[in-house]
């Protein structure tokens, strides 16, 4: 695990953008694993800027980590919508090569189809990850099997509370999501995890320095041969 502590969130974000851009420049047919959430919004802004400056995504295939169960792709808070709004509508990844789990299908079927697509187009060359306050990666909540594949996962109250900010007041955030499993994520050739701010510091310390345990799903990354953890000073503050 390579840990890189940047002075500011902007510098950490720029580092991740540069890493993704380099991957695509070196391999225009790269398979990218993508994430959503607040941390990733500036990453996509940076990639859109790189695209406007000439970086082409026309040969890229993308796989998103997760999607809420029960949300139509057109729902503004679905990850399908998030990805269109923050990235896909602004770059040239062909629509038939952007894969997200289907949120409004039978979850078991959607998960099997997603794994089959990964089998067909993968492996993922570079997987982008954020980190939950409870150590989740994708929506693999604490207690997730380290051998898990894509499946439906019930979200913890803490995750639902953290994500409630993206929903309209009174709207109940979904109770579960379809997420790549931990073993699915671990099949990526390279992984970049971005965590920013002191609120993530405890989870970061568990992921990087804690024991490998299903109670902190991100700790499984210690077993991967090519992981970069990019942090700002806030997120790094609990590292020894
Ligand atoms: C989203 C995802 C999640 C988020 C994590 C952090 O696709 O997989 O693991 O990366 O919940 O979210 P933010 O960045 O909103 O703190």
Automatic annotation (TrEMBL):
Query: What keywords are annotated for this sequence in UniProt?
Result: Hydrolase
Top-rank lineage group of the source organism: Bacteria
PROSITE patterns xrefs: GLC_GALNAC_ISOMERASE
| GO cellular component terms listed in the entry, alphabetical order | cytoplasm
Enzyme group, top EC level?
A: hydrolase
Q: Which GO terms describe its biological process?
A: carbohydrate metabolic process; glucosamine catabolic process; N-acetylglucosamine catabolic process; N-acetylneuraminate catabolic process
Q: EC number(s)?
A: 3.5.99.6
Which InterPro entries does UniProt cross-reference here?
Answer: Glc/Gal-6P_isomerase (IPR006148), Glucosamine6P_isomerase (IPR004547), Glucosamine6P_isomerase_CS (IPR018321), NagB/RpiA_transferase-like (IPR037171)
Q: Where is the Glucosamine/galactosamine-6-phosphate isomerase domain?
A: 10-222
Q: Which GO terms describe its molecular function?
A: glucosamine-6-phosphate deaminase activity; identical protein binding
The record's listing under NCBIfam families reads: nagB
What name goes with this protein?
Answer: Glucosamine-6-phosphate deaminase
Q: Which organism is it from?
A: Maritimibacter fusiformis
């Amino acid at each position: 695990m390579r840990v890189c502590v940047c002075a500011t969130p902007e510098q950490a974000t720029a580092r991740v953008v540069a890493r993704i851009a380099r991957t695509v420049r070196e391999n225009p047919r790269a398979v990218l694993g993508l994430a959503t959430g607040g941390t990733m919004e500036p990453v996509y802004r940076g990639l859109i800027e790189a695209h406007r400056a000439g970086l082409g995504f026309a040969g890229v295939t993308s796989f998103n980590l997760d999607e809420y169960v029960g949300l139509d792709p057109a729902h503004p808070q679905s990850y399908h919508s998030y990805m269109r709004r923050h990235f896909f509508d602004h770059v040239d990844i062909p629509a038939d090569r952007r894969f997200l789990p289907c949120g409004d299908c039978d979850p078991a079927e959607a998960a099997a189809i997603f794994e089959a697509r990964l089998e067909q187009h993968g492996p993922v060359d570079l997987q982008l990850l954020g980190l939950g306050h409870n150590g989740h990666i994708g929506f693999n909540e604490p207690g997730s099997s380290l051998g898990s594949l894509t499946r439906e996962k019930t979200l913890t109250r803490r995750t639902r509370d953290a994500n409630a900010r993206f929903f309209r007041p009174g709207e109940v955030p979904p109770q579960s999501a379809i997420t790549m499993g931990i073993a699915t994520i671990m099949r990526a050739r390279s992984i970049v995890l971005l965590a920013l701010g002191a609120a993530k510091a405890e989870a970061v310390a568990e992921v990087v320095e804690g024991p490998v345990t299903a109670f902190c799903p991100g700790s499984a990354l210690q077993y991967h041969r090519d992981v970069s953890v990019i942090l700002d000073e806030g997120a790094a503050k609990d590292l020894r």
